[in-house]
Structure to design on (113 residues):
């Protein structure tokens, strides 16, 4: 049996503007090049993220609540599975909005086109 995943070119229109707040974390290096839930290979240098329910391919703006820095990432994986966390980010995306030494940052996420 063969399966495939369709990744939309843009976020579904009915989700644009949807917001969530919580904690963001980032992937450990051991996940580099592993296959994500969408079928893509994970790349720490890409601006990607994991969300529990948003469709694969959805683009979200992630904003660090403390310093107001933002990054746009594409959802290509499932998670995080720890209470209070709303998104897992690639190391590259996380480092654009926060210090990786902190491990976690408070963020808002908003679905964008």
């Amino acid at each position: 049996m063969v399966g495939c995943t369709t990744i939309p070119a843009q976020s579904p229109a009915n989700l644009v503007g949807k917001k969530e707040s919580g904690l963001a974390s980032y992937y450990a290096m051991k996940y580099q090049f592993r296959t994500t839930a969408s079928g893509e290979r994970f790349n720490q240098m890409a601006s990607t993220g994991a969300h529990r329910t948003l469709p694969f391919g959805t683009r979200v703006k992630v904003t660090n609540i403390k310093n107001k820095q933002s990054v746009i990432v594409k959802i290509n994986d499932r998670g995080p599975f720890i209470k209070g966390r709303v998104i897992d980010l690639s190391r590259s995306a996380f480092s654009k909005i926060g210090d990786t030494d902190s491990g976690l940052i408070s963020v808002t996420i908003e679905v964008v086109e």
